[in-house]
Every structure is written in structure tokens, then in C-alpha cells.
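so the lab meeting is tmrw and i was supposed to have these ready like two days ago... anyway. pasting both below. for each one the top line is the aa sequence and the line under it is the C-alpha cells. i havent really looked at them closely yet so no promises
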Amino acid sequence: IIEYWRQESYLTQMDHGEDVGTPDLINFIWSRISVHTGDISDRLFAGIWWRHLLAGGVAGAVSRTCTAPLDRLKVMKQVHGGRKQTSLKDTFKYMLKEGGIKGLWRGNGINVIKIAPESALKFWAYDEMKKHIKGTDNRDLFIHERLMAGSFAGALSQTVIYPLEVMKTRLALRKTGEFKSIFDCATKIFKADGFKVFYKGYWPNLFGIIPYAGIDLAVYETLKAYCVEKYVEENRSPNALVLLSCGTFSSCCGQLAAYPLALVRTKLQSQAGLAGKLGLPAEQTHTLGLFRYIVRTEGLKGLYRGIVPNFCKVAPAVSISYYVYERTRSRLGVEMCS
């Protein structure tokens, strides 16, 4: 298939469009192939968009698989850290003891499955929103317009794929033998609480998009402008790795601001299908009540449980993603726009 695409697809030279600060490599790729003119059907016909999607999907799948143990460690700390007060080392030992080496990758399968639909939806929604904001004008978007378009794209994609996010959290937290498969997980939690269970923790997730996107974008644009100015003085263009580094740092800043909402979201997701079994007070079953409970019992630091493994996976995840993406797109014969 790869050889066929290399030979049959028509490559066109495209102008570099707006870069949007985004949380992972796949969205960085989408921003790099955005253009000022032409619509999505033109790029589909040209065979470029699908090959970038494939390269980004492969990179994301490999990266998430390699860093899955850190991601599961983060989820375990977010959900159980306050009650059990265990260290990262003790939590990791528990994961190994309870599920073995294979158990470190629980929830990774569905995490990989949702890459393609989530990224494709986000790219399409951002592209459409950008065209709607521009109208008939041929111009770059202002920073607040990019924030609006990026937030809308993120909100739409998250709304559509959110049930997969809930299932990913439940699968990551499951004990040995609790679920036989992804389908079995979906069936059991649906029977327990109905369809609404698939949107448990949806509101803190949605509200977290705005501060994350805003800070991420503002920091990214500031760093990019500095790098571009510096490279122009040296009569050079910043390469993709420099821009990716800016995106990684800006993403970390955005995560720092939105992390408390992400923690509350994950704790609510962990309750999916277990409302009757956990016996939790009503305060801990909704966003504001759970937020107040965490601050009251653990202080502000309780809102940042699990952030250490979360940051620890950033550097390897970005490095692996970038390397795999470069190798895959090279094999597909795709040139990165500059």
C-alpha cells in the first residue's frame, strides 16, 4: 500500500499556514500542513492529507504504546493517590504485582484506537472553523481567532470520542479478570448506569480545553516568534524540531494550568459503572463537589497528583513520535511543508 501511494499520489507544493499550539505530535503535524488556500477535498485528492494522517497515526500509536506504563501510573495516582498515599515506586510495584508486565499496558489498546478519529475530527473542525472565520478574506488568523478555532475543534473532537476516554480510564484501572475485552467493558458499564455513563466527567474535560488551549497557544506563539526572529538574523529558517520543541514546552505550560480539571475528570471517569458499588457521598460524584473535597482533604497539592509521571513521559513521547513520524513520512514520500 505504501509503495502504491508513493508512486500514484500527486504531490503539490503548499504554502505554510498557521501553526496552532497543540498537545501532541499529531496535531503539530496537522498545523504544519495547513494551507491558506484550497479546501480539504483538494488535499484528499492530492493524497497528502491521508499520508500525513497515516504517518501521524503510526507515530502516535508507537509513542503512546512506549509510554503507556507512565500514563497508567499517572491515572493510578490521580484516582487512588489521595486515599492510599502511596509513592510512585509503591504504585508501580502494585501494578506489577497485580497484573504483571502485561498489566502495565492496560487501557493502551483503546488509547491507540482513538488516535485516528480524534485527530481527523480535530483537523477537519479546525480547517472548517478557520475558513468560517476568514470568510472571503485571504489573511492569517489573529491569535484570539486561532484560540477560538482550536478550542472549537478540540471541544468537537472530545465530545465525539469522549466515550472512548471513559472506557480507557476504566480499562486502565481494572483489576485482573474484571473485563474480558473493550466490548465487555462497554457492555457492563452501560448496563450499570445507562448511556450517560459514557460522558462521566465530560464538563471538567470541556472546561479544561479553554485554559489549556489559551496558554498553550500564547506560549507557543511567543516562543515561535522569538525563534523565527533569531533565525532570520542568522539568515536561516527554524526547522521542524525547533518548532516541535516550542510546542512541547507550551503544551507543558498548558497542562500545568489545566491539570486540576484533568484530575477531577479522571476521578469521575473512574466511577463509571460503579456508582452503586462505591458508596460515595453525593459530594464526590459531581465536578464542583469533588473539587472542593480534594482541596479540603489534601490541599491544593492534591489537585496535582500524578503530574510527575505525566511530565516524565513528555520528552520520550515527543522524541519517539518525531522519530517514527519522520521515518514513516519519508517512506511514504511526503515532504514536510515549510
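ok protien two:
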Amino acid sequence: MLQLFIYCVFVIQIRGIFCEQVVRTLIKAKYVKDMSLFINSSPDIDQWLSLRSTKSYFDSDYEYFADLKLNNQSLAYLVDKFKAEIKFLDTNSTRKVKRLVKNGIVGKYVSYDEITEWMLKMAKENRDLVRVTRIGRSFENRQIYVLKMSSKWRSWQSKPLFLFDSGIHAREWLSVATNIFLIDKLIKQFRANDAGVVRIFQNFELHFVPLLNPDGYEYSRQSVLNRFWRKNMRQSSNGFDHTCYGVDLNRNFDHKWMVSGASANPCSEIYAGSHAASEPEIKALQDYMMRKSPKWLSHISMHSYGAIWLAPYSYSREHLPDNFQETCQKALTAIYTIEEKHGFSFRFGVASHELYEASGCSEDWSKDIAKVNHTFVIELKPDITDYSGMGFEYPEEKIHQAAIEIYDGFLEYIKTFLGSAIQNRIVNECRNRLNWIKEIQNY
């Protein structure tokens, strides 16, 4: 039985008291288009999980669902207009952020300054393995860093590249903590002469951007009422409410910008910006990747939550990558490794099929513009079927387990680029998935 948790924001207005609550909203397919338009144009609605099909997650008489944070007026409208079924999610936005970190930052939720200091420390202590480079600045002028890892420096210029970014959405702290864990674990395993890690570093460069949205992240950490902030911190200046802040950075990439699932309203949670790549954070990442294109083998952007690997394309259900079967095989190799070692199951699917269509996203831009062979968005823990209410507030004491699962999966994923054999069941499953998707598209 789900518990009801209502977080009330008291507004001194004639209209009285408004309560914000987090709910799972289930609707029939015939309402999806209109409800999506309503959600995307409503600044009072915060999408924790965007509209997606129920079939991949749980049995239901309803075809689509979304997790939304909204006030009682918007909730009543959804029920009345779209005949939505509502399930209240138990949430907790009162956790205190630790300000002082002892014994390092790995496995903890820490500040931008602490992350930056740690990255520079890793580079100084591991000069043969690690380099840190500034790739740009945020809207509020914070430096954005990439940490590069490989061995045999003189051969770096010719090595294929992998990129792992995180923290593009401010409230998704687990993605940042997981990326930091990956860096730390790889260094330790290389120093321990782990044969798999040594071979990876001999053949590839691994690039990590732990915090792509430092302004929003710090605001999320420091704000009493806005722990669940999503966007960066740009102030609106194009004709709407000038008190609205922020651009959804994962709608701002210069690929099919504003084609689907994005908003021109700066007050919206999915505001795509004044133009494609308008935001310095996105321009910094795009410029960095384009300078090294076409050497990228893979780009993985880590988010939370939902426990799913998402392949392109996001902007349209009518298109698939030309190498979908190979991308599927690599993803399922990682997913089945995690399941076999840890007993936790991630899902895999095409972004526009598992979620609703959305344009200006990282995986689409990387695939088509930066010419990256294999691109994903990975939604980390918790799983959608976990009704404990953790959501974005994933407990700090659980970071290690969540991150070690991703580490083990990523190792096997990278090894597929070194010729590791793909299991027959995976080959067959990916062939079946491709045929199923083609049938849907033709239908």
C-alpha cells in the first residue's frame, strides 16, 4: 500500500494553499498526445519520469504512465480531463546535505568544489594514467572538466575514445556519484594489475565528465525548496516570465532541436533554450567531442532514475540507428553481466519507444552529429517498480552497491569492443527486438 506524502507550499494569495505531491499518473493511449502537450506547457508540473509505455515495466490496464510532482489543481485537471488513475508516491525531500567530507568523496554526495579538488588530486597523483582538462564554463562561470584515463601516453593520439558524462540534470546526484566511483575504481584496479582494466587502458582512452551542470547541481544541493531542480541556472529573457530560470540541457543539443518533447516556455521543466546549443554547458561538450570526432566509439550519459539503458533515437519513433543490433548486443552484454553478478535487472530499449519522443537529446546528437558508433542514456537506480519513494533521493549508503553494478557492466561493455564473444541468446534477442520494432513502425 503506497503511503501518501504531501509537501505543501504555502502561497499567500487569495487562492489559498497549494500542495505539491508526487504521483504516478496512468492514462490510456488516446490521451497521450494531449496530456504530453499539457505537461510540457505547464510550469507548475515537474516531470520526475516523463511519459512512457507501461508494457515494459508492469501489468496495467493503462498504456502509459508518468511520475509527476504537481499541485492539487493540476492533479485534479489530469483526473478530470484525461481520466488519469493516480497513485501517490512516498517521497522525502528533507535529507540534510553533508558539508564536510572526511576520508575522501567516493560513495558520497559532495559539492562541486570537492569534486573539482578530487579530480585535480587524481591527476597529480596518477600522472602516468590521468589527465584533467577544462572544456568550458557554465552559465554562472564554473569550470567544466573532463578527466581522461589511459596508459602509454605517447600512443594516446591514436587510441579510440569512450565518453561517460553525468550530472546534466541537477537533481540526479546518483549519476555524479557513480561517475566518481568509476574513476576511482578503475585507477585502483589498474594499480592492482587487473588484467581486464590494463588491457582496456592499453587500447582505449576513457573520458569522464562527472558534472556537466555544476550550477544547477549546486542550486539543488543548497536550496531548501528546490532539491529537485532539473535545469541549469540561466535566467529567462525572451518574452515570458522573467523570474523563470533554467534550460533543460538535455533538450538543448543541436540535433532536431524543438522537433518533439520540448518546450519554448522558459518556465517549463523541459525548456529547450532560445536556440540549439544556446547553453555554454552544451556548447562546451559539443565542441570538445567534435574536436575529437570521429574517434569516439561510445558515449554514455548517466541519469537517474528508472534502471534502463536507452538507445537512439529519442526524437522520433520512425528512425533507428543503422547499427541497432550491434548496439543492442553490447548493451545486453552489460545488462546480463549485472544481473548474473548482482541479481539486479536493467531494461533495454529505444528511447522514443520506452519513453515519449523528445528532441535535442545527447544520444541522438552524439550518434548523428559527432559520429559516435554507440550512444546511450542510462537511467540508474532505483527501478520504476520500486515504490519506496527513493527516486532522486537515492540513499548515500546505497551508492556503492549501485555504482559497483554499473562498473561491472561497463567493463564487459567495453570488452565487447576488444572482440569479446557475444552470447548466442543475446544475438537472437537483439534480432527479435529489431524485427519487433520494424513491425511496430510498419503498423
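from a quick look at the 2nd one: The longest strand covers residues 296-306. Residues 45 and 74 are 8 Å apart (CA to CA). will dig more after coffe
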